[in-house]
Amino acid sequence: MTATDPALTALAQGWCALSLLHGRIEAHIERALQARHDLSMREYSLLDVLSRQHDGDGGHLQMRQVADAVVLSQSATTRLVTRLEDRGLLARYLCPTDRRGIYTNVTEAGLTLLEEARPTNDTALREALDAAAENPELAPLVRVVESMNVPA
Predict the structure, then answer these.
(1) What DSSP character marks residue 41?
(2) 3 state SS of 38
(3) SS3 for 134?
(4) Whose CA is closest to 18, among 132, 134, 97?
(5) Measured distance CA(122)–CA(119) in Å, rounded
(6) What per-residue confidence (pLDDT) applies to 7?
(7) Per-residue pLDDT tens digits for 5-53
(8) What secondary structure letter does DSSP report for 124?
(9) d(CA 127, CA 123)
(10) pLDDT above 90 for 102
(11) How confident is the model at residue 53, as a pLDDT?
(12) Are 59 and 53 in contact (CB under 8 A)?
């Protein structure tokens, strides 16, 4: 069944096309990050999210917020944090004002790897979008993604 199969409703066709686009982009970026940086897309995303934390009010994310940001369950996020901590890319420490809270920060090694991987991620994203734009089913979605002006 393709995204333009007449048996699908318009809404289902749109969802199939969006799912296809997402899958192709994610697979392309994953291959590039793994090959060049030994980093999965989830690991890259986690490093990116955590690198934007700060020490001011609301600066540190709770694990629930991190899980939402990288689209994983809290338990999967905790396992991912542990893997990156074991590689020396993240460090955990107790919240200074609430000993029950645990913060996670990107280490210098993690920041270095993230900065090295960012161009790979961006290039792979561009390549995946360009390839998808050649598919008539996906081209309208590519145009929407390219037109988005999401604040950083």
Answers:
(1) H
(2) coil
(3) coil
(4) 132
(5) 5
(6) 66
(7) 666 788 888 899 999 999 999 999 999 999 999 999 999 999 999 998 8
(8) H
(9) 6
(10) no
(11) 84
(12) yes
Two structure tokens written together for 112: 């270095």
- Token couple for 120: 């790979």
- 0.90 exceeded by pTM: no
Phi, psi of 88, rounded to the nearest 5 degrees? 80, 15
How many Å apart are CA 31 and CA 41, to the nearest integer? 9
CB 120 within 8 A of CB 36: yes
| Distance between CA atoms of residues 2 and 17, nearest Å | 8
| Count of residues in the chain | 152
5 φψ region: left (φ > 0), alpha (ψ -120 to 50), beta (else): beta
Q: In the prediction, which pLDDT does 114 show?
A: 97
Residue given tokens 């060049």 in the structure block = 36
